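job 3f2a | input accepted
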Amino acid sequence: MRGLRSRTDSIAVPLNSAVETEKAQALLQTFSTASLLASAGLGAFCLLADAVLSSSFIQQHTWLRAVLDNSVHGVIALWSWAIVIGLRKKSDFYEVLLAGFLASAIDLDHFYMAGSLSLKAALNLPRRPPLHCSTLVPVLCFSLRLLMWACRLKDSWCSLPWLLFISLASHHIRDGVRHGLWLWPFANTPPISYWLYVTITATLPHLCSVLMYLTGTRDMISTKHGVAIDV
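job 3f2a | predicted structure (231 res):
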């Protein structure tokens, strides 16, 4: 009996060591060369997109400016989520597109609050619409996590709260350049400096990855993908 226990313990030690090694590799790969280059590309995209949006031609056409500005929100979110999870399977592309869609859909609350489809009314609201309250970002993400736990959804859905976080946070940070962050019930923050916005946007995927690692979500996603995530 003692020999069997000793043999079992000797097997458990290498297994535990292998698991810890895989976790360490997953964390290191969060800052791999490919992911850092992708983040640099994301920062460059922000600079290029804002340069295009500031052109006199686009500024003179309200609808065009609004559509392009909203599209930039979507591209930043899908690019950020692609950095977080990598693109290995067809389902990854669906997740990336979902992140972009959610980031763009946030602006629909402008029309909801205006009670009209008029772009002029949506852009001239007396106060900021509800989904632009930055306090809601952690509340919504945590609520989604609790709902998933209550419904006992499969581990394949475990990344959904983090996807929502990337979509909401990237949108709010970009809007913060003009309006600051609305931290209800506290006061608004001052407008975020432009270069701070670019820096935060480029590093947000890595922050998200580290938080996912610390909460064990990356381990579940690695199991779903069959390998440690390499972004």
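job 3f2a | Residues 8-13, 225-231 have pLDDT under 50 and may be disordered.
job 3f2a | closed
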